[in-house]
Amino acid sequence: MGEALLEVKNLKKYFPVSKGMFKKFGDSVKAVDDVSFTIEKGDVFGLVGESGSGKSTIGKTILRLHDKTDGEVSFKGRDVFALSKKELRELRTQTQLVFQDPFSSLNPRLRVGDAIGEAMIEHGLVSKKEVRTKVLEVLEKCGLSSYHIDRYPHEFSGGQRQRIVIARAMALNPEFIVMDEPVAALDVSIQAQIINLFSDLQREHGLSYLFISHDLSVVEHLCTKIAIMYLGNIVEFSTKEELFDHPLHPYTKALLSAVP
Ligand code: ADP
Ligand code: MG
């Protein structure tokens, strides 16, 4: 057993249904019904399930971007729902979220270098004097160059934009990153490039990821452990090899049949 970085126990997240046609299904949507899992240091943990199964809600709740309904989440041994303001700021540096649509998470009016630099300064990681050098370092690590530093998000392709978002996340030197469908909006050939970037960064920095996808073939090349989600619950969890060789749950078998 490695060192536990993130422990999730019996996590529940229900969203209230205020009005409208969904009311007939009850007063709340059980987005996450009763989920437990542990991510160890260095794990690349895949969370796979169809749209609406509760993956993004898990990603946001464990980073405390949502309140929980019930259960426990601890990061590095600390209850994330009982952090002081200072500890919450630390959590915001130690953890990052990268999601599907890079355009929506980049300010269109900020040059790429400024967006990354501001985040680094805001988190007290660099001085104003050294910021440009540090920004360039992290851009280069993500396959970009000085050519890109003074450009605006709209001047980039989808794949490059996702590299920028990843660079901004990496700039804060996090220990844990939630990747929520980070390649779903990209062409297949670009998906492969971004997935290679993730494995390089993971190898070099010993990062731990929760990698969310609706597509088993995306996590196949990246993840060591995989949890399968269905209707707010994890229905199967095992190592990648076990899951591909001996799937147990019918839903896992259905997902596997779609892998080329
Ligand atoms: P996934 O990421 O697997 O597609 P989500 O976690 O986004 O699934 O959604 C799970 C369920 O929770 C869905 O039924 C969705 O409509 C609902 N849901 C997600 N976010 C909210 C929200 N902020 N308010 C109300 N319902 C939500
Ligand atoms: Mg989602």
Automatic annotation (TrEMBL):
<dbReference type="GO" id="GO:0055085">
    <property type="term" value="P:transmembrane transport"/>
</dbReference>
<comment type="similarity">
    <text>Belongs to the ABC transporter superfamily.</text>
</comment>
<dbReference type="GO" id="GO:0015833">
    <property type="term" value="P:peptide transport"/>
</dbReference>
<protein>
    <submittedName>
        <fullName>Peptide ABC transporter substrate-binding protein</fullName>
    </submittedName>
</protein>
<keyword id="KW-0813">Transport</keyword>
<feature type="domain" description="ABC transporter">
    <location>
        <begin position="6"/>
        <end position="256"/>
    </location>
</feature>
<keyword id="KW-0067">ATP-binding</keyword>
<dbReference type="GO" id="GO:0016887">
    <property type="term" value="F:ATP hydrolysis activity"/>
</dbReference>
<dbReference type="GO" id="GO:0005524">
    <property type="term" value="F:ATP binding"/>
</dbReference>
<keyword id="KW-0547">Nucleotide-binding</keyword>
